[in-house]
Amino acid sequence: LAKTTQPISMDSYEGQEVNITCSHNNIATNDYITWYQQFPSQGPRFIIQGYKTKVTNEVASLFIPADRKSSTLSLPRVSLSDTAVYYCLVYAGNNRKLIWGLGTSLAVNP
Amino acid sequence: EAGVAQSPRYKIIEKRQSVAFWCNPISGHATLYWYQQILGQGPKLLIQFQNNGVVDDSQLPKDRFSAERLKGVDSTLKIQPAKLEDSAVYLCASSLTLDSRMAFFGQGTRLTVV
Questions:
Q1: Nearest Cα residue in chain B from A31
Q2: A43–B101: do the CB atoms touch at under 8 Å?
Q3: pLDDT tens profile B96-109
């Protein structure tokens, strides 16, 4: 199973763009890259998923280079409410067990 | 669309007591997961159901934990007897199919064992 590595914590300020990079050197051909967001006292929430190049939705963008060994979650103009833990996972479905790491704890300061 | 419902939200019990958690997944979702999340860590899968059958329970401590999904909808997770190290948030999640790469989580049940 592919493992991911991401920074334990990051700090930012309101209005800034935040980029969180995840390393997944052993990603398999069928794996998709998925990001979840978790606020305190809540369950994780799906943010975005991609396979290659770039994916954008109303919440974030996901950049994936050609070799797919890493990916970057980009949060534009963060606000205090974006303070959360962000998890990067690689998963192909097909009943493969997801392994969740420690995630990246993002603190957005005023 | 209603989300994944869990109850109770909080539970405090003494060690060696028993406790049960309930989960109602999103309507139509065939796959249901129970996760354990210890403070400061990522979720750890305990058991995965496809309809009413167990797909993966390799990380479930079967000497004290049990789970069922009798009619393929609601599910219960039980701990008997509880230990101090069982203190954690227990998260239930569901997805449309076994192959889905997106899961929807409930708010969790925070268990404190004293």
A1: B101
A2: no
A3: 987 788 899 999 99
